[in-house]
Amino acid sequence: MVSNASINDSKDVTICSPKTDQDFLNYYQLRWEVLRKPWGQPKGSEKDSHESNFYHLMAEKSSEVVGVGCIRVLDNDVAQIRFMAVSPKHNKKGVGKMILKGLEEYAGRKKKARIKLYARETAVPFYLKSGYNIIGDGYTFFEVIKHKQMEKTL
Ligand SMILES: CC(C)(COP(=O)(O)OP(=O)(O)OC[C@H]1O[C@@H](n2cnc3c(N)ncnc32)[C@H](O)[C@@H]1OP(=O)(O)O)[C@@H](O)C(=O)NCCC(=O)NCCS
């Protein structure tokens, strides 16, 4: 569990790392439902081949996983945030912000100076609110989901 009380200030929502097999099942289920299922992508498509190298956080409310996100440290002074997803019924309640803060704190503990990410254009305002800047265009996923490259200096 992330101990910093400041990221647990949204009522009844707890941020922690998935630990058990069931935690990871629930974690990937939400990632798939939010980031892959709407585009007809099969189960399994939500996973990267380097998952074990990522630091994962999930938000739980009443034992339900309502948000997920992860970060990986890269070779230089950079970390990359990936696969941020909040259950639609819990959007705009501060859950994404809590996960993002926990991932940024992890990057800080790893002495990283910058965080980069590829943001879906629809998520750009969310990242702008947390201090990320657009630094360029990103790729287009499934031929329709356009991304922006964003970065934040810690
Ligand atoms: C992007 C996402 C993770 C944001 O999670 P969330 O829990 O809804 O966001 P929060 O409630 O923590 O929002 C934090 C701030 O950003 C703002 N914000 C969030 N999404 C926004 C949006 N789409 N447009 C404008 N502002 C937005 C909130 O209003 C809030 O502002 P405040 O701090 O002034 O109150 C979530 O909408 C999501 O899962 N989207 C679908 C998947 C996706 O696009 N993932 C990102 C892949 S790059």
Structural features, described:
The chain has 154 residues and is α+β, with helices and mostly antiparallel strands. It is built from 3 helices and 7 strands; from the N terminus they run βαβββαβαββ. A 7-stranded mixed sheet has the order 1-2-3-4-5-7-6, sandwiched between helices. The structure holds coenzyme A. The site of coenzyme A has 19 residues, from helix 1, strand 4, helix 2, strand 5 and helix 3.
Main attributes of the structure:
single chain, 154 residues, alpha+beta, Aminopeptidase, 7 strands, 36% strand, globular, binds coenzyme A
Concise account of the structure shown:
This protein is of the alpha+beta class and 154 residues long. The chain has 3 helices and 7 strands. Strand 3 and strand 4 form a beta hairpin.
CATH topology: Aminopeptidase
Which stretches of 5+ consecutive residues score pLDDT under 50?
1-9
DSSP helical segment count:
3
CATH homologous group name: Gcn5-related N-acetyltransferase (GNAT)
Which small compounds were modeled alongside the protein? coenzyme A
Q: How many discrete structural domains?
A: 1
Shape by Cα distribution: globular
**The first-level CATH class name:** Alpha Beta
- What's the overall average pLDDT, rounded? 92
- Helix share of residues? 10-25%
CATH-derived architecture: 3-Layer(aba) Sandwich
Strand content: 35-45%
Distance N to C terminus: 22 Å
What series of H and E elements makes up the topology? EHEEEHEHEE
Describe the strand arrangement of the main beta sheet, using strand numbers.
1-2-3-4-5-7-6
Number of strands: 7
